[in-house]
């Protein structure tokens, strides 16, 4: 039985944590063990492309050894960021939209826009300066720009003189006063 189970045969399990896959052979050296990358795990606080998990764990932290020929299972942090589905935050309050996006791992910026819809009402969502529809896959950590209604303060706005202006010029002048043509 001792011969069949290699009783007493002990090989130290090295630590692979933080290593890149191309460096693994050097760590294994002449030990009679193998390794296999089984999975990838998205971890924001680990360098991309490094080993973040192993089983069995290293001997120096567990005091446990393995027998010859054992395969160590590894997980690596992928080189590309995790892709997330963009939600629809249009028609939400600014606060709710920011909370939703931040909890998913997106970053937000807010651009206020004159609009009568109501103060802090989300009018649009932009990614890289372009409207982004809900359901689009984008990298975690991306910056989403929220177009938010500035709202009305209830004050009256004097109507400017638009005589002699083109329609485009009149629209631009009115837009700066939170008025529409």
SSE diagram, text form:
Layout lengths: L1 H4 L5 E2 L11 H5 L5 E7 L10 E5 L3 H4 L2 E2 L4 E6 L6 E3 L8 H11 L2 E7 L8 E6 L2 E2 L5 E3 L3 E7 L17 H10 L5
Parallel strand pairs: 2-5, 7-11
Antiparallel strand pairs: 1-4, 3-5, 6-10, 8-9, 8-11
Summarize the structure in words.
- With 181 residues, the chain is an alpha+beta fold.
- The protein contains five helices and eleven strands; from the N terminus they run H-E-H-E-E-H-E-E-E-H-E-E-E-E-E-H.
**Major sheet summary line:** 4 strands, mixed
Give the count of helical stretches: 5
In terms of DSSP E residues, the strand content is: 25-35%
Report the principal-axis shape: rod-shaped
State the helicity in percent bands: 10-25%
List keywords for this structure.
alpha+beta, 19% helix, three-stranded mixed beta sheet
Concise description?
By secondary structure, the protein is an alpha+beta fold. The chain has helices spanning 2-5, 24-28, 59-62, 94-104, 167-176, and strands spanning 11-12, 34-40, 51-55, 65-66, 71-76, 83-85, 107-113, 122-127, 130-131, 137-139, 143-149.
């Amino acid at each position: 039985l001792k011969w069949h189970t290699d009783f007493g045969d002990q090989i130290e399990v090295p630590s692979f944590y933080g290593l890149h896959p191309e460096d693994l052979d050097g760590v294994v050296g002449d030990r009679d063990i193998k390794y296999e990358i089984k999975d990838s795990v998205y971890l924001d606080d680990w360098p991309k492309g490094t080993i973040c998990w192993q089983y069995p764990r290293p001997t120096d932290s567990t005091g446990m050894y393995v027998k010859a020929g054992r395969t160590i299972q590894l997980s690596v942090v992928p080189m590309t960021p995790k892709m997330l589905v963009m939600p629809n935050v249009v028609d939400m309050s600014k606060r709710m939209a920011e909370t939703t996006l931040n909890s998913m791992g997106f970053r937000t910026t807010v651009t206020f826009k004159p609009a009568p819809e109501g103060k802090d009402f989300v009018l649009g969502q932009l990614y890289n300066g372009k409207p982004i529809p809900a359901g689009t896959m984008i990298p975690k950590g991306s910056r989403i720009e929220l177009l938010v209604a500035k709202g009305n303060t209830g004050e009256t706005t004097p109507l400017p003189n638009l005589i002699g202006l083109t329609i485009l010029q009149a629209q631009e002048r009115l837009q700066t006063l939170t008025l529409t043509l």
